[in-house]
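Fold this sequence, please.
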Amino acid sequence: MLDKQLVHTFHQSLKSLLPALKLGQSREIIASFYGFKSVASLIEAGFVIPDYDCWDYEDDEDDEDDEDDEDDEDDEFSPCSRTLPSLAHENCIRSRLQQLFNTLLSDQQLEEKILLHISLDTSIQQCEFYYWNDIAPWMVDRLGAQLIEKLISEDNASAAYSYAAHHFSEIDIDDDDSEPREDYWYKKYISGEVLEGGALRFAKEYEEKLSLKSQYLSLIKRAADLGSKEAMMEYAEYTDDVGAIRELAKQGYYPAIESTYDVYGDSHYEELLAYSGHKGAIFHLMEKYERSSKEDEQYRLVFLNELANLYGYYPTQSIADNDEDYGPVFVIYEGIYLPQIDDELKQKAKNEAQIVFNQHKH
């Protein structure tokens, strides 16, 4: 599905070169730009452009240069000075243009002008494609209820999870026993007690919340059964299914790995978390090696410090560096002590940290 605003903007930008260009033909050209033979094949492949910001092609500065541009146009596209288009799917675009305008584009120079125009068009260059299974909650309104509900009916896990997360994320059921529960009047209501005024309103509001929550959990469970890891994680957290969360961690799902470490104290993935920038994991590993006399562990400590710095943490910096008066009873954190290692190893640690950071940064 192509964004209408994108198609309209691209269509208008080409009108000067192809005055008879139709909107449907612009869609076909855009599809060919991304390597598809037609819009139909693009849609069949399940690609979506969910959002597009319209670009303003009529800046004041451009208006001032219009006359100069017209004078230079012939030279710009002359055989001697013409800039060749840089298009990933140039042959696909050429083929589609010739099919759509086989008579008009018998002028090779005009075809080259159009190809160059397309290669420089920011409106289509800066759009991103998403697979149907990459639909995020923020895309639900953009794509529309009709399409999302159709995808859900076709057992699309991503659509089911995103619809639930988008529409039911603000449900708030008070489960705090330390205060009068929010469901107080609801319990009286379902027991058959006749309620009036505010009491009846509170009971009805809570009944509606329970209904929404039931819909939410049902859709999350369905998305989980269809294979959405986000839904599996959310449902497991709601049902406090530690086994399911640990299984997701074994499958390499990062939020589950983080949860098993932060919530359940599992240390199996501590090094992976440290590499991925988890502050607690980095600091814990550094503290583990801090007083070691072994050369390999000293090197490891320096490497972890370099990695921490790349993520914006500074383990060797003490609280005293802030120059604040915390009072006489405050225990000052002095920062982690780094051992003295030779310059060659320091540089090696720095290089290794940069490689790891590049591989794992989100």
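The mean pLDDT is 81. The two ends are 28 Å apart (CA to CA).
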